[in-house]
Amino acid sequence: MAIIDLISASVVKVPLKSKTKTEVIRELVDVLFKADKLSDTESVFKAVIARENMGSTGLEKGIAVPHAKTEKIKNLTLAIGISPEGVDFDALDGEKSKLFFLLLAQPNQSGPHIEALAEIARITRSQNFCRMLTNASTPEEVVELFTED
Amino acid sequence: MDGPVNKIMVYVDGTEESITAAQYGICLARATGAEFYALYIVNTRALSDLVSAKIFLQAEEEEYKNDLELDADRYLNHIKQMARDKGVAVKTLKSSGSVNVEIKNKVNENEIDLLIIGELSKIRSRRDELYNETERAMRSVNCSVLIAKDEERVWTIYNQLV
Q1: How far is CA A145 from CA A12, A84, B123, in A?
Q2: One pLDDT digit (tens) per residue for chain B, 162 residues
Q3: Of B4, B39, B17, B15, nearest in space to B114 by CA
Q4: Model confidence pLDDT, tens digit, residues A8-28
Q5: What is the DSSP string of B90-112?
Q6: Which of A115, A120, A143 to mutate to test the interface with B (most CBs of B within 10 A)?
Q7: Which range (A82-96, A121-135, B19-33) has the least confidence?
Q8: Taking the complete model, does pTM exceed 0.80, yes or no?
Q9: Contact at 8 Å (CB) between A35 and A102?
Q10: Which chain B residues contact residue A1 at CB under 8 A?
Q11: Is B38 in contact with B79 (CB distance < 8 Å)?
Q12: Does the CA dihedral B19-A115-A105-A17 come out positive or negative?
């Protein structure tokens, strides 16, 4: 499954309102709940926070890829959030994170989970594409960028 | 004399599409008398990419590798059972590394003449073309490739096989 199959305007939040790491995770989990992708926000939130406590998924150059395994979803699920101002996500380079990919998978979906994360890793290598995403002002624009690129 | 298809291999990755491909492969193996192989690849290349990208911690790499090993055994056993139910012998193969490279290697090593894969995602972005591992394998293997489509029809054919 390509990650484009996981992306629709309903799972994209632009701009994020959050100002802290935990708020970002909470906001993205809520986006997925509203999009009817998960059944229990609290346990999903806790699973993502537990993973972050092992080591931040805030990478370099403004990108963060929080992820977790959870039983509280039906299928592999992705939410994308964009914070033009940036949020301190304990990133490796100390910079604020602006582009967030929250990926959730069921515990028995390790194969698709890994492939989706690997695809996100490849996509985010393109600084130009990340810049375009960060400059997007609507969820539809984000979807269009993935579809066209 | 050899027939047009003597060795069929299905690539299984745990998706519904690949299970459909396996059902179709079992039907074809029964119809042609070809030897039937099922291959699962533990994608260790993606795991190391994720560690390099710092998305995965070292501990996560181990945990997910174990998960993938268990998935491999579970799915290959499932294919074995499906084949056994229809009186088809299956040779299961488990490998690790880069998916497209390992598919090509196993096709060559086992002299496979027909590779069956599950339906691919619709191309909605150029990125799909560039990065889909199964599609890369389809393009690079030396044998013929069949993409199993129409899950319902395949299930009916498989189910009716006595």
Answers
A1: 12, 17, 14
A2: 478 899 999 999 888 899 999 999 999 999 999 999 999 999 999 898 899 888 999 889 999 999 999 999 999 999 999 999 999 999 999 999 999 999 999 999 999 999 999 998 776 666 655 567 788 888 889 999 999 999 999 999 999 998
A3: B4
A4: 999 999 999 999 999 999 999
A5: EEEEEEES-HHHHHHHHHHHTT-
A6: A115
A7: A121-135
A8: yes
A9: no
A10: 15, 121
A11: yes
A12: negative
| pLDDT for the residue A115 | 86
Task: List the single residue in A1, A5, A57 with the smallest CB-CB distance to B55.
Answer: A57
- Candidates A126, A14, A29, A124; CA nearest to A79 is A29
The ipTM (two decimal places) reads 0.81
* Cβ–Cβ < 8 Å for A44, A73: yes
The token pair that represents A22 in the structure block: 């935990």
User: How many angstroms away from the CA of B1 is the closest CA of chain A?
Assistant: 40
**Secondary structure element (H or E) that encloses residue B78, with its range:** helix B58-85
Q: Which residue of A has its CA nearest to B98?
A: A115
Q: pLDDT digit string (tens) for A32-63? A: 999 999 989 999 999 999 999 999 999 988 99
Start-to-end C-alpha separation, chain A? 17
Please list, in sequence order, all residues whose beta carbon lies within 8 angstroms of the beta carbon of residue A136, skipping any fewer than 6 positions away. A14, A82, A142, A145
Give the SS3 label for residue B2.
Answer: coil
Q: Are B156 and B27 in contact (CB under 8 A)?
A: no
The DSSP H or E segment spanning A123 is helix A110-123
Q: Which pLDDT belongs to residue B129?
A: 52
Q: A101 in helix, strand or coil?
A: strand
Nearest to A115 by CA among A60, A57, A76: A76
Torsion (CA) B15, B19, B22, B23 in degrees, nearest 10: -160
How many angstroms separate the CA atoms of A96 and B8, rounded? 52
